[in-house]
Amino acid sequence: xxEYIEHDRDGISVGLVEKKFFTFSEPPDQLILExxxxxxxxxxxxxxxxxxxxDKSNAVLVLHALTGDSHVAGYYDHQDQKPGWWDIMVxxxxxxxxxxxxxxxxxxIGGCMGSTGPGSIDPDTGQPFGCNxxxxxxxxxxxxxxxxxxxxxxxxxxxxxxxxxxGMQVLEWCVRYPDMAASAMPLATTAKHSALAIAFxxxxxxxxxxxxxxxxxxxxxSGKKPDLGLAVARMIGHIxxxxxxxxxxxxxxxxQDRENFSYDFSADFQIESYLRYQxxxxxxxxxxxxxxxxxxxxxxxDLERQHGEGSLVKAxxxxxxxxxxxxxxxxxxxxxxxSKDLVKAMKKNRLDVSFCxxxxxxxxxxxxxxxxxxxxxxxxxxxxxxxxxx
Amino acid sequence: xxEYIEHDRDGISVGLVEKKFFTFSEPPDQLILExxxxxxxxxxxxxxxxxxxxDKSNAVLVLHALTGDSHVAGYYDHQDQKPGWWDIMVxxxxxxxxxxxxxxxxxxIGGCMGSTGPGSIDPDTGQPFGCNxxxxxxxxxxxxxxxxxxxxxxxxxxxxxxxxxxGMQVLEWCVRYPDMAASAMPLATTAKHSALAIAFxxxxxxxxxxxxxxxxxxxxxSGKKPDLGLAVARMIGHIxxxxxxxxxxxxxxxxQDRENFSYDFSADFQIESYLRYQxxxxxxxxxxxxxxxxxxxxxxxDLERQHGEGSLVKAxxxxxxxxxxxxxxxxxxxxxxxSKDLVKAMKKNRLDVSFCxxxxxxxxxxxxxxxxxxxxxxxxxxxxxxxxxx
Lengths: 390, 390
Known about the structure:
Two copies of one chain form a homodimer.
Chain A (H helix, E strand, L loop, with lengths): L1 H8 L10 E5 L6 E2 L5 E2 L2 E8 L9 E5 L26 E2 L4 E2 L4 E5 L14 E2 L4 E2 L9 H15 L6 E5 L1 H12 L6 E5 L7 H15 L17 H15 L2 H7 L19 H16 L2 H13 L2 H5 L4 H4 L6 E7 L7 H13 L4 E6 L13 H18 L1
């Protein structure tokens, strides 16, 4: 594994990083969630990369998507086989250059990667929350991230950046705490889920809840998890992350380890085998209740409803950030027209907006894949904002 | 219900119709399926409308899609609330005019609407086939339809018509029995499933097979059916039958019987409620094993692999029919480019082909919905072919 250390020296990875924890909202001062329910204590798992400069003007907050975590870049130890989920973008000399910027990422609440979520212990019962974990919103996620920044002493972010559900958090940041974000990069995201996006999430949730092992959400004590339902949910997700083109190139109608049809219900096609594998692998690392909670938060997210009395233009009237909005041609989960709606509403508020639709065949997943165009856009945008501020 | 009778007089419905049955392939002369397995006796449920003319030159074979049946048009009795699934197209004075043509439709084998399928009794065991029902193909479906036509004494069809999986059967008819189809109308269909279409089917199948009540396919004796899994499978299907646009117009983000979010996992949005309803309703009328078998047959269908040694042009070299190929702009399950591939291969064989892409917002479902353009296209095409032949 010394290869990675060499990479570090060459400026390819941030190297070894550490997951940290911050606990707050202790009773009786619990956070009141948007649903009205009280939650506390709350723990956030987070990581930081690079160095905060003296005037604390170089902080970039990265916000992760549905199944992401605080581990954006680097490795936990020398045996670690895989770097963080956006190691291609965050590191020395990369799009978000850790030689210049101080990068922060926290696992969202409701998740299962160290932050408080349905798998955490409910202090009232001493048992895992399970089905008793309150429904959380994108607004709640952002409000607890603000507490983390307060604790880190950061009063203004150079930028907030994230894709998909991370992008929703970016938008929420800009209208909820307009003075705290000098700039923002919502990538492959939307101001509100379409009926189609809600439909996919709902079917995925139904697949989990149809699994008898889900047991009304109370499965952690029984020891039997709704793995089959969660695997189906993940398979549905994977279809929406790709595109017709990407699937045709990646799999087409190629058969899996055979020359002829099996004439049974085993995985004949590579695409079937791929989906089954993704489903099975996912249940090892993700919690079914977290999947339910995070998808519900994404479906509820509606910037114009929550911040603009039904008008997206009005919602952005509070924002002050300079924006870089990015969509991808083959993303049919959050198609370009939804990014354009964002851009239009921003422009009507005379906000400084750059917009780019990147030609990419990989569907919604494109924002997570190596893409020189995206890296250079982000790099240039951050440089410009940093220069203007200093 | 006398309203319907009046409609009959006005030429709006074919009126009262009857489901008939034809049984053949009795042991020891069972049909050998494409998988190599023997199947027999085989029963087909079928219906006919209109009158076969003296020289038997006015027969139109209608082929149904995944969850359809032999009941294309009309009513079974005066209490019947709903007409057949394509009553808008088949009837006196309609696109397929039963005053002129003799229309035949049989339920596909592998189905659950009267034809032999996984729910039928296996003569070897005296129990329902369940998981022992052999995997069938689109080719098998067409071969047994041919037996029905032989029995009806029809040696040449004026036309074969069908959408989706019905359209696959249309294509199979034209290359397998080229002398039997004077014309053919494959609607909203494809010569082979894309990886995306296979992916959706596979996830739907996994949802069924993940349901413990599926019990390896052997659930009919236990009395507990995989209703939850089948409902999820149907929900996945319904997403693919609509389109982003259609869903936005039909549901948008409207809430179901409430003004605010529930902050729980009930159906907040109308689209959620719709999908749950469709799932629940479906399990009352459809068999989970039939769903598995028919989707597998559709995934296996590959005209160029089975009839053209890998070339679609070669596959159509056997065809003689005059074609009307129709696609719909918002159909993302079988997009227009797949219909164009058909048309190109037909034209390279100098076949007489008309092609029309119909502007429609309803996604794949469009071919089943009232559409004046489609009705008049089909009507005109049939008239032309009938005139040429007589």
